[in-house]
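Lab notebook page, bench 4
Experiment: in silico fold of construct C2
Operator: M.H.
Input chain length: 259 residues
Purpose: comparison with the prior construct
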Amino acid sequence: MSEELLESREGGIVTLTLNRPEKLNALTKDLWRRLGAALRRLDGDDAVRCIVLRGAGGKSFSPGNDISEFATDRSNSEQARVYGALMHETLSALRDCRHPILALIEGICVGGGLEIAASCDLRICGEGSRFGAPIARLGLVMAYPELESVLALAGRAATLQLLLEGRIISAAEALRLNLVSRVVPDAEVVAESYAAARRIAEGAPLVHRWHKKFIRRLEQGKPLTSAEADEGFLCFDTRDFEIGYRAFLAKQKPEFEGR
């Protein structure tokens, strides 16, 4: 694993860390590529129960793309398409990952950092965290695949407010706009995020994967087929269902197997 992207594992919880603290974890073309590759690999790992995505250093999740690369890798539309394809593949890997992904947000979460966090399933931040998308000041647009997750969370009015005004907003305002799931004191962000990850990991992994799949399908707004509707009952044929209800009756903690 590249030093710019660290990976660690404790039980079924995998932590991916954007590791450029000297640049506040600004994203490079290579870092986008490596993050996407890691997510696609982990997606196929049935031992994973939850992925925690964070930035190194405690001061920043990510301020977005490293501006120093613009002159070399994004100086025209042809280069931007290549760069954008990497970004969009990674954002898709985040949204489509079977496993729950939690963004642990300390400090700055702006631009591409906000797009990444919005593509996760849960976002826990500190009271001192800051959010925004002031890209109009750079003469840039938020392309369709980058806009998708932010719009889904905040809605039309709030997303336009972020993009048109370019303000950097507080954690409290981000919570009001649904950009984050929970705000806690800065000193408690790490502990609360991993407590949430453990709660997720203790649940039935097949159920988490089904819920993510069902929500994505319902967001399409099309009628369900009979086969799709029937999928909601397949959990009753799993070993995890048997483990779960027997543990409940015995007043014991279930140890799910993911099958």
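Observations: Strands lie at 5-10, 13-18, 50-55, 60-62, 101-105, 108-110, 122-126, 130-132, 169-170, 182-184. The chain has a mean pLDDT of 95.
Next step: discuss at group meeting.
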